[in-house]
Design goal:
This protein has 120 residues and is α+β, with helices and mostly antiparallel strands. It has a single domain, classed as Alpha-Beta Plaits. 44% of the residues lie in helices and 18% in strands. Helix 1 packs antiparallel against helix 4. The longest helix has 23 residues. The radius of gyration is 16 Å and the shape is globular. The chain starts with a strand and ends in a 6-residue tail after the last strand.
């Protein structure tokens, strides 16, 4: 099971401040809680500014890009749900959410569970 979180930064932060905080402060918190939260893999996708990226967006009439994408893998949906069944899991999830409020605009950051289908 994979959870994808498309992040938009708080307007009070510059794009670089957002990325710095996410990578330097939040990532270690996730790493420290990964076993408790049963996270098997965690990746941060940071945007890359380039003429190619801009050209691709313009050619499609794309909306404003996200400030980053977090991807979290779990062995199963049961593992993901089991986290809420323990006091330790609830506490770890609450601590991450509290930190996310410091740099993520939660109301504009969609989150969903996906199933990957490899094509190429």
């Amino acid at each position: 099971m994979k959870l994808v979180y498309c992040l938009r930064r708080l307007v009070s932060l510059s794009p670089q401040e957002f990325l710095d905080y996410w990578h330097t402060n939040h990532a270690p918190l996730v790493r420290e809680r990964a076993a408790t939260l049963r996270i098997r893999r965690y990746e941060q996708s940071h945007p890359v500014s380039s003429p190619v990226a801009e050209m691709a967006a313009v050619s499609r009439g794309a909306p404003e890009p996200f400030d980053g994408i977090a991807s979290l893998w779990f062995d199963s949906a049961d593992d993901f749900q089991a986290v809420g069944a323990t006091p330790e899991g609830r506490r770890a999830a609450r601590e991450l959410l509290e930190d996310e409020r410091r740099f993520i605009d939660l109301t504009r950051s969609p989150i969903w569970v996906v199933e990957d289908h490899r094509v190429v």
